[in-house]
Design goal:
With 110 residues, the chain is an all-alpha fold. The protein contains three helices and no strands. The chain has one domain: Substrate Binding Domain Of Dnak, Chain:A, Domain 2, CATH 1.20.1270. Helix 1 packs antiparallel against helix 2 and helix 1 packs parallel to helix 3.
């Protein structure tokens, strides 16, 4: 999800809110799936991988919640907020790729 400036050079605040909200809800769904017994680590390397993923997920979720709070407020979006929206979405995408690798790794033994 790339954020592109509109013709007026402004980003719609509602669009940013929806992108972050959708990403947050997606992370929540993935977290629930990851916490399932089906994806429990069976090796030490899988355990380490899951711990890293969990720590990264918590940091990204915290960032998402902070952004949602800012975007919900009546304040105007500043350029640094847009940069943070871009960063959060990029980090969430990278995390999803790591989770998919972990899920594949845990199911390759099944």
């Amino acid at each position: 999800m790339e954020i592109h400036d509109t013709q007026l050079g402004r980003i719609d605040k509602k669009a940013c809110f929806l992108w972050i909200d959708r990403s947050y809800k997606g992370l929540q769904a993935i977290k629930q799936k990851l916490d399932s017994y089906l994806f429990e680590p069976t090796t030490y390397s899988q355990y380490e991988e899951k711990e890293q993923i969990t720590a990264k997920m918590e940091a990204i979720e915290k960032g998402h919640l902070e952004l949602l709070k800012i975007l919900k407020s009546g304040k105007n979006i500043l350029e640094n907020h847009l940069a943070k929206v871009r960063y959060q979405l990029k980090e969430a995408k990278t995390l999803e790729e790591s989770i998919n690798r972990y899920i594949t790794m845990t199911h390759s033994k099944v």
